[in-house]
Amino acid sequence: MAETKEKILMTALRLFARDGYEAVSVSMIAGELGITKGALYKHYKNKRDIFDSIVERMYRLDAEKSREHNVPEEKREQNPAEYENVSLVSLKEFTVSQFLLWTEDEFASDFRKMLTLEQYRSAEMTELYASCFTSGPVAYTEDIFREMIKNGVLKEADPKLLAVEFFAPVFLLINASDGSSDKAESLDLLNSHIDGFIRRYSAEK
Predict the structure, then answer these.
(1) pLDDT reported for residue 1
(2) Which of 17, 20, 66, 75 would bridge 113 by S-S if both were Cys, CB 3.0 to 4.6 A apart?
């Protein structure tokens, strides 16, 4: 049962990433798997239930990466203490790990492609895309940098501008990786960008 449920989830996400969420029906998902709609409904109530399960798993993956690299899991207003002692090393390791997740992990990569297709089709998808890939990461990084500035880890600067400067190349390289045949070059560029950022703004001699 669990294996079938997993196959449904992964197949649905692959179709959503290829055709868009709105264009894919339950019948298409079932047909791709060679099962009936009735068999699919034993595992998921409807297409929206599948989508919600995909989003929930993506959030779990993101939280696991945060714990692995000792960076905050939640927004600052939910747990401000988590933001007080983030190191530049942890932030770099987390950022590189996120880059690899979004570009090399099949589930995360398909999730990103799905939202890229869907972001213009509904306010909900626009908000979810922004939360995962644009305003969300910038706000998250801004809160980390604000604490780093206060604690003397980074030089005095506008934390929002720093966050934009830090994250914009990350976003570019993630999206550029889709059409690149040299993933290693993108990873090298990412590491060089982060190292250069740290050299420019670190308050430590």
Answers:
(1) 64
(2) 17
Q: Which residue has the tokens 């409904």?
A: 41
| pLDDT value, residue 205 | 58
Whole-number Cα distances in Å, 126 to 69, 114, 140, 160:
28, 12, 18, 21
Which class for 81: exposed (0-12), middle (13-18), buried (19 or more C-beta within 10 A)?
exposed
CA atoms of 45 and 35, how far apart (whole Å): 15
How far is the CA of 3 from the CAs of 6, 11, 16, 50, 140, in angstroms? 5, 12, 20, 15, 35
Q: Judge contact between 1 and 43, C-beta under 8 A.
A: yes
Burial class (CB in 10 A: 0-12, 13-18, 19+), 100: middle
Reference 169, options 204, 194, 139, 148; nearest CA is 194
Res 52 pLDDT > 80: yes
Q: With CA atoms as reference, report the closest residue to 162 among 113, 91, 110.
A: 91
Alpha-carbon distance of 106 to 17, in angstroms, equals 11
Contacts of 56 (CB under 8 A, 6+ apart): none
